[in-house]
């Protein structure tokens, strides 16, 4: 009964080779987020979609992009991965307001860059 | 965006003692403050949360306090157990839209 599903669980890519991480949700939540978490650090918000509205954090590198083709799916595209992009990427969802603020995380995708 | 600071970064306590973790936030419009526990290699799990219209909330051994005026909130764990060992993150959110995390506290409970 997983509610926020991320695939794959582990992803290995080569330096400079584009990679796409995927996230899907069965909660019908309005907001979907992508966080980057490096070892021993806090999750860092990259961007989020509020319905179809895309919101980029000011310090998110241009190398990172996202797509949300429908309510259920969201993708993180890394155009030219560098060694510094190796991290856990966490997808999360929420429904703002009406007491439904809770953030639901997926299991994450651990990205390695060789 | 919001800036959330968290202290201490590491905390060791004896089993049965209490642990306190403190966070401050910068955006006065933030009104929802969750706490997450993360074990190695796993997703963050929500353990307790508090909204800005409440000063304190308790759930068994875990409690959270909020001081809106000072813009700080704290996590209190009483009667700590070895299974409480993990990394704890605080977060701040405005209306459940955009969540910003503190830097984390690595808690070790010594048996």
Short précis:
Chain A is mainly beta.
Jot down its keywords.
heterodimer; A: 114 residues; four-stranded antiparallel sheet; 51% strand; B: 111 residues; mainly beta; five-stranded antiparallel sheet
Give structural notes:
The complex is a heterodimer of chains A (114) and B (111). Chain A is mainly β. In chain A, the strands form two sheets. In chain A, strands 2, 4, 5, 6, 9, 10 and 11 form a seven-stranded mixed sheet that branches. Chain A has a four-stranded antiparallel sheet with strand order 1-3-8-7, with no helix packed on it. The relative contact order of chain A is 0.34. Chain A has no helices and eleven strands. Chain B is mainly β and 111 residues long. In chain B, 0% of the residues lie in helices and 59% in strands. Chain B is built from no helices and eleven strands. Chain B has strands at 4-7, 10-14, 19-25, 32-38, 45-51, 56-59, 62-67, 72-77, 86-94, 97-101, 105-110. In chain B, the strands form two sheets. In chain B, strands 2, 4, 5, 9, 10 and 11 form a six-stranded mixed sheet that branches. In chain B, strands 1-3-8-7-6 form a five-stranded antiparallel sheet, with no helix packed on it. Chain B starts with a strand and ends with a strand. The model of chain B has no long low-confidence stretch (mean pLDDT 93).
């Amino acid at each position: 009964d997983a509610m926020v599903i991320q695939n794959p669980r582990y992803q290995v890519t080569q330096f400079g080779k584009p990679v796409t991480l995927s996230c899907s949700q069965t909660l019908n939540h309005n907001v979907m987020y992508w966080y980057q978490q490096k070892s021993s650090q806090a999750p860092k918000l990259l961007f989020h979609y509020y319905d179809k509205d895309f919101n980029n954090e000011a310090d998110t590198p241009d190398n990172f992009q996202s797509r949300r083709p429908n309510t259920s799916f969201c993708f993180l595209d890394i155009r030219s991965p560098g060694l510094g992009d190796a991290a856990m990427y966490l997808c999360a969802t929420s429904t703002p307001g009406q007491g439904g603020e809770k953030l639901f995380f997926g299991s994450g995708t651990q990205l390695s860059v060789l | 965006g919001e800036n959330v600071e968290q202290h201490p970064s590491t905390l060791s306590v004896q089993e049965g003692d209490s642990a306190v973790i403190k966070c401050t936030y910068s955006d006065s419009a933030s009104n929802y403050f969750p706490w997450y526990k993360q074990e190695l290699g796993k997703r963050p799990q929500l353990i307790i949360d508090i909204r800005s219209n409440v000063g304190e909330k308790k759930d068994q051994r875990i409690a959270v306090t909020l001081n809106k005026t000072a813009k700080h909130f704290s996590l209190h764990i009483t009667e700590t157990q070895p299974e409480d060992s993990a990394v704890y993150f605080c977060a701040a959110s405005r209306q459940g839209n955009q969540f910003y995390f503190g830097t984390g506290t690595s808690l070790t409970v010594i048996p």
